């Protein structure tokens, strides 16, 4: 992305500021801090990939941005206005921001035809126009042509890729400004994934759609995103343009995620243990218990090992500049480190 790219100067369409989402602990356990201080901006026409392991908080963050989970503290704004969680205001917001789920089989009612599935959003929002023409247009934009051929089909009569296109058509029918796609190709065959990613890019080009793509797959982020935000244990630990983050990762966690891609040079980094419990977030850098840089002695040689274990790192800002929340990266890789 070049420095004269309009995405760098545009005001955010959707913005999260110091977002915290806490869930009560079970059987007297401490509260789980699923999202523990996140700033994130998505600009008009921008595709942002939110990446991380399962359990890192990325789906909870996405649900909050959709208005499905109210934050414990912090704010979500859309078009510069705070998100209103009152019923009528939230219904209007959900028309402008649509969700595309991971499993099209689970998100489509097996008893509803394709036409009914796509028209459902129009009926919920009291659409007064030509329903059939609008459904046909959405199906056509999603790559199901001629659309009338699919009207009376049921989900079980479609391929996995066709079902995902129906889900996308159901989102497009309301003409949203932003879609949140949660693992949009995870359940699809490799041969179909590229088609769905190409469709999302085409929709951005044709309609000016913005998108937040939630994924554990950095290869997918490389193919579709303008910007990437890497999340670990409730916080974004590295962010920047996809080219900068994925060709020159600064955070050890990002380096480990990239190392397991088939085309990555060298041996994969095997992280020890599971991500820590969000109800027991460790002091210092929240990644330090699994960090290969700390375990190898590199952090000690750089003079930051004690800081890694004891000194917390600030929340990264939500803008487009490259940032990393890592004591070691701050002194060894780039002055942009926190």
How would you characterize this protein structure?
- By secondary structure, this protein is α/β, with parallel strands linked by helices.
- It folds into 2 domains: 226 residues, P-loop containing nucleotide triphosphate hydrolases (Rossmann fold, 3-Layer(aba) Sandwich); 84 residues, no CATH class.
- It has a 7-stranded mixed sheet, with helices on both faces. The chain has a 4-stranded antiparallel sheet with strand order 2-1-4-5, covered by helices on one side.
- β7, α8 and β8 form a beta-alpha-beta unit.
- α6 packs across α7.
- The longest helix is centred in the middle third of the chain and has 18 residues.
- It starts with 5 loop residues before the first helix and ends in a 6-residue tail after the last helix.
- The C terminus is likely disordered.
Proportion of helical residues: 25-40%
- Report the portion of residues in β strands: 15-25%
Question: What class would the helix/strand composition place it in?
Answer: alpha/beta
CATH architecture of the largest domain: 3-Layer(aba) Sandwich
Largest sheet descriptor: 7 strands, mixed
Mean pLDDT comes to 91
CATH superfamily of the largest domain: P-loop containing nucleotide triphosphate hydrolases
CATH topology of the largest domain: Rossmann fold
Q: In angstroms, what separates the terminal alpha carbons? A: 23 Å
Please count the helical segments.
Answer: 15
The Rg value, from CA coordinates, equals 21 Å
The number of domains is 2
Please give the CATH class of the largest domain: Alpha Beta
Helix and strand run: HEEEHEEHEHHHHEHEHEEHHHHHEH
Number of strands: 11
Spatial ordering of strands, largest sheet:
6-7-8-3-9-10-11
Poorly predicted ranges: 334-338
What shape does the CA trace take?
Answer: globular
